[in-house]
Design a protein that fits this description.
Largest sheet: none
Low-confidence stretches: none
Distance between the termini: 28 Å
Number of strands: 0
Structural class: mainly alpha
Number of helices: 4
Helix content: over 70%
Mean pLDDT: 76
Order of helices and strands: HHHH
Number of domains: 1
Length: 86
């Protein structure tokens, strides 16, 4: 719902800065880095991989990436909702 509302109000937004673009690109790269081993983690867990510490660290990195992505989406929605500065 927030994303739809933000798209409706995009005519009032200010353009994103270069720093915002760098943060978004970094977040995209971190998300790709965090999620590419998911199929391997699932397969290792199903086959009885005995190193639980490695699995837990990998899942912790995935959770952190999801938290960052949610925070960036909320920030983008707030940026789109903010009225344009004159």
């Amino acid at each position: 719902m927030l994303v739809i509302d933000a798209v409706k109000r995009r005519e009032r937004r200010s353009p994103p800065s270069a720093v915002d673009s760098i943060v978004w690109i970094s977040a995209l790269l971190f998300t790709v880095y965090a999620f590419w081993p998911v199929p391997f983690l699932i397969r290792a867990y199903r086959h009885g991989f005995d190193r639980a510490d490695i699995l837990l660290v990998a899942w912790a990195v995935i959770v952190i990436a999801v938290w960052f992505d949610v925070a960036l989406v909320v920030d983008a929605v707030n940026m789109w909702r903010k009225p344009a500065q004159n």
